[in-house]
């Protein structure tokens, strides 16, 4: 076929269409006048335009469709002629007098269609004659369209079961033979196109063949629609013959398309019952055939078939579908030594999805697929093909999506072996997928063994030791990953304290070796999880084993101390400081005074050595005071030591206002309403007087530095503390001391001040008036204060 350009092709098409239209006009005029001779003459001239070799398949199809429409009119005319007494046999012979073979065969097919309709001869004889006669056209393009016309006009006249043309002499096998023969000849013509013309036009030829493939595939569709093609005939006749043609043609394009056609047009039930035959042909195909896509589509169809028809599931086991597919994939990979890793992984990914859909209860099948994949990947190192990596992630994600349970995936022994072939970045992605699956489905991991297995799978986000030099991880992504790990810790749980202690030990092992930058994210939730474990421990009186139990509070607190010690080196001293105080409170609940004191000691050391920022010191001191106030386990000596230290820290703060507030906060350490042993009014008063002194000093500093007396807010805050302790009945806080402080504040307020302090003082006075209105002891005490 010669084509000098699209413009020339358009001209040739226009010229052919014009001549075609003219002859079609004369043919129609002859038909209208019932002139059979002229109708045949002009129809032959019209069809001669199809003899061109200058048009591409796309343009030739345009001309062919014009011919098809006109031939339908001619067929109706032939049928009317037979009704008017014209012998159909004579008509069948008359059309063969056309001068050129191509018009002659188009007319012969048209007359043959009428011949079959009249039923004057068995349909099988006429069909056999037509399919044989069409061998006269060996030009690929013209031959394909001629045989396509034959298939089109004969599809409703095949001697199929239930068809009006079935008859006694005809059986469905004749229809099958006709379609198979036409298919075989069309495929040969189609394949021949590949080998015509120079090598430089190979790409163009392949494109043209792609445009013509449906003409060949329609034959298989016709076969699938025949009522008489049951499972037995498909298995014994149709499939072997079609596969024989596919294998023998040795053409990559034809093999890929036709195998895919078989999968798409024939029923899923037939595929299931003939798997061994269909799969047996796969290794015989050309090495360049995209067998990956073909088999993937087959498995997808079978999976959907099983999903829509639960009653067919026993047949999958009966025919050993999984074993056959697994063996076929192995043979295909073995036959194609140069198969890309992407294709192999995709095949196993499709097989795994098929297995999970059809045999969800057979974990051994899923593990076998993963094992086969590992075997294929062995010796290839980390996969560097992006698409193959993506497919491997899809394969690993399939069990998670199917079972919605990571615990089930952990039972697959080959699962972690497949993960090992991912590169570092993809391991991180896969680990994130696994963690999200756990969180989405609220999956609890209940044993240390399973936690160990899980952490082997997600080590991409809990361990940075194998990360290559120069790999930069986005900080936001990193934080998101570590936050997901922190959430994951709370899904690792067991009611049994011994097993839970084993779990937290596994976490400790992985976290402490996972790199310092992760610790500030992972240690806090681990500490919280461990503190929950302490709360579940039986108290000593309830534990029949007493201190003989393998998991004791002492052992757990030692464990906590070990993991928190790692934080100041990160550095995250403020975080370690808070965790020490939390552990001290937990030790207080367990009545473990030495342990609680040790945790406070560690917190104080961090405060002194690591926390240097003034704002951080203020916050830390507030935490110390608040925590120490709640502690009940300390004896007098230990409590005095810790309290003395806290007040000393308060007096050493950099800013005077901070000093003042910290000192009056320390007053709460010397008066606990529910503990008579900690009710030292003298030291309460001492703290408040010291706070007043510091507040006065702060005012002097403000006056010296800025030329103003400064705010009286500190005095009002101290007044509120006086009122608190006065209300609690601290004998050292007298009416006189309260009134004296109020008088001082009023004197200070007479000078220029800020509105917030004025509002604060007014609110305090309103509170005092409100308390005076109360009945009982509180109202009486406030009545004594004269404002």
From TrEMBL:
<dbReference type="GO" id="GO:0005829">
    <property type="term" value="C:cytosol"/>
</dbReference>
<keyword id="KW-0967">Endosome</keyword>
<keyword id="KW-0472">Membrane</keyword>
<dbReference type="GO" id="GO:0010008">
    <property type="term" value="C:endosome membrane"/>
</dbReference>
<keyword id="KW-0813">Transport</keyword>
<keyword id="KW-0653">Protein transport</keyword>
<comment type="function">
    <text>Plays a role in vesicular protein sorting.</text>
</comment>
<dbReference type="Pfam" id="PF03635">
    <property type="entry name" value="Vps35"/>
</dbReference>
<comment type="similarity">
    <text>Belongs to the VPS35 family.</text>
</comment>
<protein>
    <recommendedName>
        <fullName>Vacuolar protein sorting-associated protein 35</fullName>
    </recommendedName>
</protein>
<dbReference type="InterPro" id="IPR005378">
    <property type="entry name" value="Vps35"/>
</dbReference>
<keyword id="KW-0333">Golgi apparatus</keyword>
<dbReference type="InterPro" id="IPR042491">
    <property type="entry name" value="Vps35_C"/>
</dbReference>
<dbReference type="GO" id="GO:0042147">
    <property type="term" value="P:retrograde transport, endosome to Golgi"/>
</dbReference>
<dbReference type="GO" id="GO:0006886">
    <property type="term" value="P:intracellular protein transport"/>
</dbReference>
<keyword id="KW-0963">Cytoplasm</keyword>
<dbReference type="GO" id="GO:0030906">
    <property type="term" value="C:retromer, cargo-selective complex"/>
</dbReference>
<dbReference type="GO" id="GO:0005794">
    <property type="term" value="C:Golgi apparatus"/>
</dbReference>
<dbReference type="GO" id="GO:0005770">
    <property type="term" value="C:late endosome"/>
</dbReference>
